[in-house]
Design brief:
This protein has helices spanning 3-6, 35-45, 66-71, 77-92, 109-115, 163-168, 182-185, 193-197, 274-282, 318-338, 355-364, 380-386, 406-413, 416-426, 480-483; strands at residues 9-14, 54-59, 98-103, 122-126, 147-153, 174-179, 206-210, 231-235, 266-269, 288-291, 344-346, 370-374, 395-399, 437-440, 443-454, 462-471. It is of the alpha/beta class and 490 residues long. The protein has a 16-stranded mixed β-sheet with strand order 1-2-3-4-5-6-7-8-9-10-11-12-13-14-15-16. Strand 1 (9-14), helix 2 and strand 2 (54-59) form a beta-alpha-beta unit. The model is unreliable at 297-322 (pLDDT under 50).
C-alpha cells in the first residue's frame, strides 16, 4: 500500500567524496556502491521505477580521467555510463512527469533523446560551470513539455541549441532561463535572443530570465504572444537607473512602445527604471508586484571599468536622487492602474515612504493581502491609523533601511516581550482580524487571536489583546512577500 507513495518523488544526491554514516561512522554504501549509484541501480533493475513521478539528480559527480579524456576529445567513461544509466532509468519510469538534472556534469545527447519518448511535462537542466569538452546538440522537442527551466546557460562553455526545443514543444507554457553569472563578471555579451526565440512566436503564460547580458537589441514582441503572458520575472538583466556606466552599450532597455499584456497578473524584478514605470502605466489589473531591493554590495570598479563621478561629502548620490524621483512615478502608476486588483506589493527598502505615500497606497489598494515597504519610526502613529483600511491584510513587513541601521537599532532596543505586547494591543481591533504575520526590520512576529490578558503597562489591569509570538524567518519562508524578496527564480 505504501510502496507507490514511497517512490513518487525520488531525489538522488551525488557527492565527490566518500561520506561516513553519522550513526556508526562507517563509509556510506560500504559493501556495495554509493547511495547515488545504488539508487540508480534500483530504478534500472527493479520494478519500483514504474511508481516514480518526479526524478531529481543533484550534487557533485566525480568523473575519472577527465584531463586525459579531454586531451583526446573523449567523454570520460564514468560520465558516459552515468548518462546511459539515467536514460535507462527514465525510460523505465513510465509514469515520470518531472525530471531534474542538477549535477555538475553535462547532460549528454543520450539522455536528451531518451526524454523525447517520455511523458515529461516539467524539465529542469543545469549546465556545469566547467569547460570540459562535451558533445553539442540541437535539443529535440519534447511533445508533452509544459514547463522548462535551464540554469547556468553559457554559450561559450556549452553551445547547445535550445531553439528547436522551444519552437516545437507545442504545449510549453512556462519558461525560465538563467544565464551563468560568469557572463556578467567577464562582461561578455555572447547571447543572441534571435537565435534562441526566432523560430516561432511562443505562447507563454509564465516567463522568467536571470543574468541576461547581451547587446541592446531589446526584447522583441515578435518572440512571444503578448495576449497569453500572465507572469514576468526579470532578475539582474535589463538595465536599471543605478547600473554601472560600463553596461550602457550592452544592457538593453525594456521597450514598451508596442507592449500590450492584457492578462498580466504578476511582475517581479530587481530593477527600478523609467521603462518599468512605462510598463506599469501601459498595463492594468496586476495582482502581484514585487520590486526587489539590493541584496549585496555593488561590484567595485575594476581596472578596465569606467570611473564613477565623484560625490562630495554630505551630498546625496545622483542615483539616490533618481531613485527617489522614480519612487513617486512608480507609486502613481501602481495605484492608478493596478490599485483595485493588487493583492501583493513589495517595494524596495531604500524607498522610505512618507505618510502621503502610505495614504496613497491604502486609499487606492483596498484588496492588499501582503505588503512590504520601508517606513521610518516616526511614521508609526500614522501607520496605525491607515492600516485598518486594509481589511484583507494577512502579512505586513516594515523593511530595514539598507543605507543606515537607525530603524533596525530602534527595533532592537525593545525586548521581544515588549514588541509582542505592543503589537498585540495595536492589532486587537476587528479591522486587523486577518493579520497573521508582521516584520519590523528583521524581527518576525506571528499574530494570533484576541485574548483577555494582563496589561503590561498597567499591572493588575486586564485588557483584550492579540496573542503574539516572536518567530524565526524559517516560519515565513514560504509566504510570498518573504519568499519573493530574493534573487532566486521560482
Amino acid at each position: 500500500m505504501t510502496l507507490p507513495q514511497l517512490y513518487t518523488n525520488v531525489t538522488l544526491r551525488s557527492y565527490d567524496h566518500i561520506r561516513n554514516s553519522p550513526g556508526d561512522g562507517r563509509p556510506e554504501g560500504c559493501g556495495m556502491g554509493s547511495p547515488f549509484a545504488m539508487g540508480l541501480n534500483g530504478l534500472v533493475l527493479r520494478n519500483n521505477a514504474g511508481y516514480v513521478k518526479k526524478l531529481r539528480l543533484v550534487g557533485e559527480y566525480k568523473e575519472h580521467d577527465l584531463e586525459e579524456s579531454s586531451k583526446n576529445g573523449r567523454v570520460p567513461d564514468s560520465g558516459m555510463m552515468l548518462n546511459t544509466l539515467v536514460r535507462v532509468a527514465v525510460e523505465r519510469s513510465v509514469s515520470v512527469t518531472e525530471f531534474c538534472w542538477e549535477l555538475n556534469t553535462k547532460m549528454l545527447p543520450t539522455v536528451w533523446h531518451g526524454l523525447v519518448h517520455s511523458r515529461i511535462t516539467c524539465l529542469t537542466v543545469r549546465f556545469p560551470s566547467s569547460r570540459s569538452p562535451r558533445p553539442i546538440i540541437v535539443v529535440p522537442p519534447l511533445p508533452s513539455l509544459v514547463s522548462l527551466k535551464i540554469i547556468d546557460i553559457d554559450p561559450l562553455c556549452y553551445g547547445d541549441d535550445i531553439s528547436l526545443l522551444l519552437a516545437e514543444s507545442e504545449h510549453l507554457r512556462e519558461l525560465k532561463l538563467i544565464w551563468s553569472p560568469r557572463m556578467h563578471e567577464a562582461r561578455e555579451p555572447s547571447v543572441k535572443l534571435g537565435s534562441i526565440f526566432g523560430r516561432r512566436r511562443l505562447t507563454l503564460a509564465k516567463f522568467a530570465i536571470k543574468n541576461l547580458y547581451h547587446h541592446s537589441d531589446g526584447w522583441c514582441p515578435e518572440y512571444y504572444d503578448q495576449s497569453a503572458v500572465e507572469e514576468v520575472t526579470v532578475i539582474n538583466s535589463w538595465g536599471g537607473h543605478d547600473d554601472h556606466p560600463e553596461s550602457a552599450f550592452i544592457h538593453s532597455r525594456l521597450r514598451c512602445i508596442d507592449i500590450s499584456l492584457p492578462r498580466l497578473k504578476l511582475v517581479r524584478g530587481d530593477k527600478v527604471s523609467k521603462e518599468l514605470v512605462e510598463l506599469l502605466a501601459k498595463t492594468n489589473g496586476l495582482e502581484k508586484l514585487y520590486i526587489i531591493g539590493p541584496k549585496k554590495p555593488k561590484r567595485p570598479n575594476s581596472d578596465n571599468a569606467f570611473p564613477r563621478s565623484p560625490v562630495s561629502n554630505g551630498s546625496t548620490p545622483p542615483s539616490e536622487l533618481r531613485s527617489d524621483s522614480l519612487k513617486e512615478e512608480h507609486l502613481e502608476a501602481i495605484t492608478r492602474n493596478h490599485g483595485a486588483t493588487l493583492r501583493h506589493l513589495l517595494l524596495p527598502p531604500q524607498w522610505r515612504l512618507t505618510s502621503d505615500n502610505i495614504a496613497l497606497i491604502v486609499r487606492n489598494c483596498p484588496n492588499l493581502e501582503q505588503i512590504a515597504f520601508g517606513a521610518d519610526f516616526d511614521r508609526f502613529p500614522n501607520l496605525r491609523l491607515l492600516m485598518p483600511f486594509l481589511p484583507k491584510l494577512f502579512a505586513m513587513r516594515l523593511l530595514d533601511n539598507p543605507d543606515n541601521s537607525d530603524f533596525r537599532d530602534k527595533m532592537h532596543e525593545l525586548d521581544d516581550g515588549r514588541h509582542e505586547a505592543k503589537i498585540g494591543g495595536a492589532t486587537s481591533a476587528c479591522e486587523w482580524s486577518k493579520l497573521r504575520w508582521m516584520e519590523l526590520a528583521d524581527l518576525v512576529f506571528e499574530v494570533g487571536r484576541v485574548e483577555l490578558m494582563e496589561d503590561s503597562d498597567n499591572p493588575g489591569k486586564m485588557s483584550y489583546r492579540r496573542k503574539v509570538w516572536k518567530r524565526d524567518r524559517e516560519a515565513v519562508k514560504d509566504i510570498e512577500i518573504w519568499k519573493m524578496d530574493s534573487l532566486d527564480v521560482f
